[in-house]
Amino acid sequence: MVGKTLLTAMAVIISAVFVVGSWITTGTPNIEFLRFFSLAVFFCSLLLILWDQWAWKLRPFQLLPGVPRDVSGTWEATLDSLWIDPETKKSPDPKTVYIVIRQTSSNASVILISNESKSKSSIARVIKEDGSWLIHYVYTNEPQVDLRAKSPIHHGSGVLSIVGHPAQRVAGSYWTDRDSKGKLTLERRSTEYAEDFKGGTDIFTYVKGQKDSR
Q: Please, how many CA atoms are within 13 Å of residue 160, restricted to the half-sphere of its CB?
């Protein structure tokens, strides 16, 4: 873990400064406190892991400007493809897809699941640019085996804009190496993680049913 390595390096530097400082001021290096060095690094590492995996998602921290926006979970989204069918000269109708985002304070992954294919990110980042939080990702799309004759495996990338502290709305665009592009609008969100298209449908059917029963 990069964070743990950085933490250890900082602890070593700070300890060295104290040892050298005591040596300069007293003429004798004081190394008594170094017996607690391993324990201090352990507790600091534990706090770092808790922050990276969980604490940063809490609402008080999400209100801080430097903390990445939490967009983890499964989103029900609308995909608007701008690809023009050469036969009909029209774009496909908008379709419902599910976007699964897994996230720590330092890493992210994006999976888009449709009724025909699944896209998995190889690189994904939640970063702040010009005052706005964005999701940048690069992905590989794998259609179902029986559809690959007309829709082969391909690659693409996307940029989604996050609005709200905490996140309230997410939308953006994507483009592929097949010279196609489109828009994504993430509309409803669940903290559950869908594994396939039916799983996403079940999650939001349940959510809708819960709201209708109130």
A: 28
| Angstrom distance (rounded) from CA 197 to CA 205 | 12
Q: Are residues 201 and 171 in the same domain?
A: yes
Domain count, the chain: 2
Which domain, by its residues, includes 164?
73-212
Q: Are residues 98 and 157 in the same domain?
A: yes
The amino acid at 54: W
Closest CA to 137 of 124, 120, 128: 124
90, part of any domain: yes
Residue 124 belongs to a domain? yes
The predicted model scores a pTM of 0.80
Q: Let me know if 112 is exposed, middle or buried by CB neighbors in 10 A (0-12, 13-18, 19+).
A: buried
Determine, yes or no, domain membership for 192. Answer: yes
Same domain as 148, residue 79 = yes
Q: How far is CA 129 from CA 71, 97, 132, 137, 173, in A?
A: 17, 27, 5, 15, 16
Provide the 3-class DSSP secondary structure of residue 175.
strand
**Average pLDDT for runs of 10 along the chain of length 214:** 54 65 66 60 77 91 90 97 89 96 96 97 95 96 92 96 88 94 95 96 78 55
Coil, helix or strand for 153? coil
Sign of CA dihedral 105, 50, 58, 72: positive
How far from 130 is each of 5, 44, 62, 133, 134, CA to CA, in Å? 30, 32, 18, 8, 10
Does residue 58 lie within any of the structural domains? Answer: no
